[in-house]
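ARCHIVE CARD
Drawer: 12
Card no.: 0347
Subject: one protein chain, sequence and derived structure
Cross-reference: see card 0346
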Amino acid sequence: MCNNATCITANNGEQKLDLIATKASQIDVVLVDIYIPKVSELDATSANRNQPSDPPKNLPVVATTADERWHNPKCCLDFGFNSVLPKPVSLSQLDKTLRQFAA
């Protein structure tokens, strides 16, 4: 699993937006649940994509969800996600996906 990776966590969408605003240069990839509390992940990802600067504008965002409506990769791309991992997520798939987007 991604050796030497550092994980920064947020308990809800508001915290996630704050972390990205203050630590964007330290983040290689964002892993989120589509149904994160407080601020929906659709709104949060849209807010990131609409930023004038990069990062956070082009930070890779990988969504996780058990909702089968989101398992179509094109659907996720249309909403600004770079990839989607259907739940339950296997460690090998998580590792592969994070490595794909991490610097």
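Annotation on reverse: Strands lie at 30-33, 61-65, 83-86. The two ends are 15 Å apart (CA to CA).
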